[in-house]
Design goal:
Blueprint: H1 8-25, E1 34-40, H2 41-47, H3 57-65, E2 70-74, H4 84-89, E3 99-108, H5 121-130, E4 135-144, E5 149-155, E6 165-167, H6 172-180
Antiparallel strand pairs: 1-2, 1-3, 3-4, 4-5, 5-6
Length: about 180
């Protein structure tokens, strides 16, 4: 889908997940989960005018031109969790946050081999790690309180900005989990 066909909020959420995936990619692979609060830049500037002194000029200009422009604020000091699901269940956002985004790395297998994965978690992990068709991917999902969402996926074996897949339905489970943090 081309950007021209997207509604303004859908375009904003698409832009922010692409920016976040690129930002996270600068740190390389084998990185921890990254969590971001998404706020409408214009609203944040209205609530805190001094923010204009800390944001780049191009962000201020974008917010003036687009009331749906989003700024991502990375969350530090995340709670301890053994799984992504456990981490996301511990996160709740105040009403001043317009959305949330998560960028995480995962190993994926072709659907036709998923029923071959051993039941034991340790054995399954070793089996997946040694499978010849496994792919390491970085997946990002951004979700707004108003319901718009978008995903970005980059495969480690095609690690370039022009090889990032972007669309709403690339990681439905992650979209649902990120959206639940906004409820």
């Amino acid at each position: 889908m081309t950007d021209e066909l997207l509604e303004p909020r859908s375009l904003s959420v698409r832009r922010v997940i692409v920016e976040l995936e690129r930002h996270v990619a600068t740190a390389g692979w084998d990185a921890p989960v990254r969590v971001f609060a998404l706020v409408k830049t214009a609203g944040a500037l209205e609530r805190d005018p001094s923010l204009a002194n800390r944001l780049p000029t191009e962000v201020i200009t974008a917010a003036q031109e687009d009331p749906d422009h989003l700024t991502a604020v990375e969350q530090e000091g995340l709670p301890q969790a053994s799984t992504l699901e456990e981490l996301l269940h511990q996160i709740a956002w105040p009403e001043s946050v317009d959305g949330s985004a998560v960028v995480v790395e995962r190993t994926v297998l072709p659907p036709e081999v998923e029923n071959q994965i051993p039941d034991d978690a340790e054995i399954a992990a070793a089996w997946i790690d040694s499978h010849p068709d496994r792919r390491d991917v970085r997946i990002g999902a951004a979700v707004l309180r108003t319901g718009e969402y978008c995903c970005a996926v980059r495969a480690r074996d095609h690690d370039s900005e022009d090889s990032v897949a972007v669309g709403p339905d690339l990681a439905p489970g992650l979209v649902e989990a990120v959206g639940a943090t906004l409820e």
